[in-house]
Amino acid sequence: MSVTNLSRLQIFDISVNEFSGVVPSTLGRLQYLEWFNLDNNMFEANNEQEWEFLTSLTNCRALQVLQIGWNRFAGELPSSLANLSTTLQELKIFNTSISGAIPPGIGNLIGLQQLFLGGSLLTGVIPVSIGKLTQLNKLYLGSNNLSASIPLSIGNLTGLVQLTVKANILDGPIPSNIGNLKKLSVLDLSNNNLSGVIPREIMNLSSLSMYLDLSDNLLEGPLPSEVGNLVNLGVLVLSRNRLSGMIPDRISNCIVLEILLMDGNLLQGNIPPVLKNIKGLALLKLTGNKLNGSIPWDLGGITNLQQLFLAHNNLSGTIPELLGNSTSLICLDLSFNNLQGEVPKYGVFKNLTGLSIVGNNDLCGGIPQLHLPKCPNSAARKKSKAMPMSIRIALPTVGAILVLISVLALAIFLYRRSKEAVQNRQLPPRFTDMELPMVSYNEILKGTDGFSEANLLGQGRHGSVYRGTVENGRVSVAVKDMRARVGDFGIARILNEAARRTSANSSSTIGIRGSIRYVAPEYGEGFEVSTHGDVYSLGIILIEMFIGRSPTDDIFRDGLSLHHFAEAALPDKVMDIADSKFWLYNEVNNSSATKTITGIKECLVAIIQLGVLCSKQSPRNRLSIGDATIEMHNIRDTYLGTWG
């Protein structure tokens, strides 16, 4: 029986399958159709005839949702797109090979609340008529080839909560009337050719709460002092522009800021000591500016600061001892400045994998591995014996096993908890297979006696591993203290729980806060949350832990990602991308050590392969959480047995 014979059909959803071929043009007979979803299949359309199905949908006058992303569509969008029903609320066509211009008549779809046309090859301008879509709350046009300036009519969309036009070739100034969008929580204009100054009106948008990203443009002039009005903002990214002048003290009013990136600009003057007032700041990057003066003594007093990058400036004076006292700081880059005096010997300063101080010629002291000259008047110390090669090889091997076991234990524990939750609770069918309970921070804190030194198993570049006992008192697990990153797992549970409490017509949004770089790409495209996203986070963290590179490293630009970087190295070049300071695999001469290194390489290949399979771009191509757990079991049993 043909689907088109179901004349009263209202919902047609065949997303996340492997259907292929051309979509039939007879779908327009379904006059009562309200929901049409072909996402994540392999359908094709390359010419006007094959796009006829979209034209036929103009007969469906009750249509409210149209989603056809993640397919093999190409060619130009038919102009008939603008003739779809005015009842249409969601239009999502993304991650395809569609080219050509956005139909100028797009403004006819006055009922639209969400418009997603990202991740394709669209060219031309953003139509002025888009300003007629006054019901819009989400507009996503990112990752295309759109050019010219951002139309002033954007300022008419006063209901917008999210505005993303990143990764195009837009130029000209940023329209100041974006400041009219008083409900905006996400603004992303990054990776364009936008010029001029940052409008003060944007800095007055106190509604911005998730992130503001203006990076990789040609913006110049000073950072407006009105930045202090962004009191609810979590992430501010202004990297790689031409901003000059001093960092305004009022930036300290952004008290909930977690990530502040202003690297690659022309900023001058001192680093404001008032940054200490941003208590939740976890990542501060000011690399590659013209900052001078000393490093504020109390930057180390920011209790949540994990990564601090101040390299390639003109900073002088001594390194504040308080940075060494920080218990949260795991990565510190002070290289290529004019710092002098004694280097502390504790905290991050005794972890070579997380520290860089090269290019400061007047430093002294520090731990012996830094090979710095002794400080004047320092007491003579006995020379320590060189570490035997066998120990140099054994230590990173044991460390690698401990890190692997911690990830295995955490993933297995989460998987078992999710199965128990599904069995013990009667949930609506649409959420049953998406539950993924998490271990709460309080449970971890209690199980490890407050991260007691007595439970410390080991330390590495990405945190410490502790022994802990879960609440039932019978199961001991290894817990990796990765702070915000662990929160990426179970994001489906958090958002689905919120979704159950939110009506379908609500205009409220759920914000993903914290480690945004680990969030699956489909969340930015409007996909509903799922365990596929949790698997993506697991894959990215696995790769990062073993190669020592973050997804936001500067090398990952122009289409290169952490996933592709790791995938290209498999299987023969894995040791080339592994953190050489961690694996210490050079200068191996005896057969026993060679055998050990061979085992390490095989283990690394298996782990990186797993990370790559978990972090595929398309959700349907990723491993399931069950398959990932089985594979981690296999890796553990194979290599722990070999070295144990």
Automatic annotation (TrEMBL):
The keyword Glycoprotein applies. ATP binds at residue 480. One of its GO terms (molecular function) is protein kinase activity. It is found in: Cell membrane. It comes from the Eukaryota. Keywords: ATP-binding, Glycoprotein, Kinase, Leucine-rich repeat, Membrane, Nucleotide-binding, Receptor, Repeat, Signal, Transferase, Transmembrane, Transmembrane helix. This is Putative LRR receptor-like serine/threonine-protein kinase. It comes from Dichanthelium oligosanthes.
